[in-house]
Amino acid sequence: MLDESELASLRNRFKRDAEFLMQTTASSDENEKSQEEKDAQPLPRVNRHSVFWILASIGVTYYIDFLRNIMENNDIKSWWFNVGLILLGVCLSLAMYCIVYLEWFKGIKHYDHEYPAIPPITTAAFIAASCSFNIALWPVWSFFTPLILFTQFMGVVMLISLLG
Predict the structure, then answer these.
(1) Which of 40, 91, 134, 146 could be a cystine partner for 125, CB 3.0 to 4.6 Å?
(2) Percent of the chain with pLDDT over 70
(3) What secondary structure, in 3-state letters, does the chain show?
(4) Taking the model in full, what pTM does it have?
(5) Is residue 133 within 8 Å of 147, Cβ to Cβ?
(6) Of residues 76, 60, 46, 88, the one with CA closest to residue 152
């Protein structure tokens, strides 16, 4: 097997490797702390990302004449569109309940801990609404429909993030 000198050199090598690993772990902990300190500072509300999505949403709305198509186009599947509107209303109502009532009036900052059913219900309602809108508007814009609706969604989300 191994004689005494080989075992001693193997032990020393493992000891050096362990010390090296401990030093790199300690330096990465310091890096993580500095990253946590960076994360603790609030990000600016207006940034290039927000401006891009808002301008893209405005451009898409203008270019495809979004509102006139929604109001006047007869190719829209009205049943699916109405289902999407109802589900979007449910989603927005739950969001307003959480933001306005629970956070502003009651002062509950972590309403997802107090009312754990609200986030999954809101998410499911939004996903179902987006699927309904895609089905309803597919005859109008065909395969561009998901791209158009996603751009509109991101523009609205970024606009809301600027407000609050």
Answers:
(1) 91
(2) 85
(3) CCCHHHHHHHHHHHHHHHHHHHHHHHHHHHHHHHHHHHHHCCCCCCCHHHHHHHHHHHHHHHHCCHHHHHHHCCCCCHHHHHHHHHHHHHHHHHHHHHHHHHHHHCCCCCHHHHCCCHHHHHHHHHHHHHHHHHHHHHHHHHHHHHHHHHHHHHHHHHHHHHHC
(4) 0.71
(5) no
(6) 60
The answer to whether residue 144 scores a pLDDT higher than 60 is: yes
pLDDT at residue 98 above 70? yes
Q: Which two tokens stand for residue 53?
A: 């999505």
- Distance separating alpha carbons of residues 159 and 54, to the nearest angstrom: 7
Q: How far is 145 from 137, CA to CA, in rounded Å?
A: 7
**How much is the average pLDDT of 111-123?**
91
Contact indicator for 64, 141 with CB cutoff of 8 Å: yes
- For residue 59, what are its two tokens? 């451009």
Q: Which two tokens stand for residue 128?
A: 């179902």
Of residues 56 and 16, the one with the higher pLDDT is 56
150's enclosing H/E stretch is helix 145-163
- Give the C-alpha separation, 104 to 77, whole Å: 38
- Say how far apart CA 66 and CA 153 lie, in whole Å: 13
Q: What does the pLDDT read at residue 8? A: 76
